[in-house]
Amino acid sequence: MEIILKEDIIGLGYKNDIVNVKSGYGRNYLIPTGKGVIASSSAKKQLAENLKQQASKLAALKAEAEKKAAQLEGVELVIETKVSATGVTYGSVNAATVVEELAKRGIEIDRKIVTMRDMKKVGTSEATVHFHKEVEVKVPVTVVAENQPAPAVEEAPVEQPVEASVAEEETPAAE
């Protein structure tokens, strides 16, 4: 059964996509909740006309999504959590935890656009943030035990203060 989606559904498709779904899923969930309509020939023509009229609006939405994605470039999350002696976490690190950690860094995003597998052990994983149909960002997530040293992360700004301290040492010697 072909359905035209009226809103983004992660794992199925994005707004205005034509997707094939099982008949029961379409008739019993998507259509009654207003998340989709049957893709008849007249509905497809209407969709094509709407897309033509909204082309500039869609381009603006994509540009906005790319700006948001630029904020996440190079972001790596290290999440500290309570861990048992075997390395298994108490609870799990999931998309909601990632969103909270990003909010602490001043990056506000909706929890519904983040997908990742729940992490129940110490280690590294990836969270995918779906800003737009064509704009997705993968954010590396590292889970470490509380009260343990964080994994070493290469930082370029560390080199600059070292050079500045060398310059400060030379200044008193010159006087």
Automatic annotation (TrEMBL):
Q: Which InterPro entries match?
A: Ribosomal_bL9, Ribosomal_bL9/RNase_H1_N, Ribosomal_bL9_bac/chp, Ribosomal_bL9_C, Ribosomal_bL9_C_sf, Ribosomal_bL9_N, Ribosomal_bL9_N_sf
Which PROSITE patterns does this entry report, sorted A to Z? RIBOSOMAL_L9
Q: Which Pfam families match?
A: Ribosomal_L9_C, Ribosomal_L9_N
Which residues are in coiled coils? 44-78
Report which superkingdom the organism of origin falls in.
Answer: Bacteria
Q: Where is the composition biased (Acidic residues)?
A: 166-175
Keywords, comma-separated and alphabetical: Coiled coil, Ribonucleoprotein, Ribosomal protein, RNA-binding, rRNA-binding
The residues that cross the membrane are none
**GO cellular component: a single term:** ribosome
- Ribosomal protein L9 domain location is 13-40
SUPFAM superfamilies the record matches:
L9 N-domain-like (SSF55658), Ribosomal protein L9 C-domain (SSF55653)
The ranges of region (Disordered) come to 149-175
Q: Where is the composition biased (Low complexity)?
A: 149-165
Database matches in Gene3D superfamilies:
Ribosomal protein L9, C-terminal domain, Ribosomal protein L9, N-terminal domain
NCBIfam families registered for this protein in UniProt:
L9 (TIGR00158)
Please give the function described in this protein's UniProt entry: Binds to the 23S rRNA.
Q: Name the protein family.
A: Belongs to the bacterial ribosomal protein bL9 family.
- Put simply, this protein is called Large ribosomal subunit protein bL9
**Organism listed in the record:** Prevotella melaninogenica
Q: What is the lineage of its organism?
A: Bacteria, Pseudomonadati, Bacteroidota, Bacteroidia, Bacteroidales
